[in-house]
Design goal:
This protein is of the alpha/beta class and 171 residues long. It has six helices and five strands, in the order H-H-E-E-H-E-H-E-H-E-H. Strands 3-2-4-1-5 form a five-stranded mixed sheet. Helix 3 (75-85) links the parallel strand 2 (66-68) and strand 3. It is globular. The mean pLDDT is 92.
């Protein structure tokens, strides 16, 4: 987005959430973008909050826990900040771990983290891997949180992963 806006590129691929940060002139952008247009949406990339713990059911249950929020600067890492904000939480309320997807899977399996917040396609390779444990649970976003997210960033839209998409996970 930054390169296209500056005339250093003619086309690029970007997550819609990052695009709208530019359109709205929100950090990391210093001003609203004016020379960027959407050509097509290739596929949805929903936010996932995953855990192998059966006692975590809502976002606020993550308070004080070790949560992989993906590496700093990733679009998903910015979305995770928005998700937490919808329930009046921030990284100060969790123990954020800036792990890659692969490292997050290993850390969840080894009980070094309690949850993973990430974004991926449907099906999402990370969720497929974790579902093979037979213990994967998704922490859902409330309708109120989804609406609040869209209000903060027009690139974030409702999406429901259908039950049966992942082995032994109902929804």
């Amino acid at each position: 987005v930054i390169a296209v806006e500056a005339g250093k590129g003619e086309i690029g691929m970007v997550a819609s959430s990052a695009l709208y940060l530019g359109v709205d002139g929100k950090p990391p952008f210093k001003a609203p973008t004016k020379n960027v247009r959407v050509i097509a949406t290739l596929y949805p990339q929903p936010a996932y909050i995953m855990t192998l713990r059966s006692d975590l059911h809502k976002i606020t249950d993550l308070k004080g826990l070790r949560v992989s929020v993906t590496p700093k600067g990733y679009a998903s890492e910015q979305v995770n900040r928005v998700i937490l904000k919808t329930v009046d939480m921030s990284y100060k309320d969790i123990k954020p771990q800036y792990l890659s997807e692969l490292d997050s899977v290993a850390a969840l399996r080894d009980n070094h983290i309690d949850a993973l917040m990430g974004m991926g396609s449907v099906p999402y390779a990370v969720a497929i891997d974790l579902a093979s444990t037979g213990k994967l649970h998704f922490i859902p976003l409330s309708d109120k949180s989804v609406a609040a997210m869209h209000g903060m960033n027009k690139g974030l839209m409702p999406y429901v992963v259908k039950g049966g998409t992942y082995q032994d996970v109902s929804a």
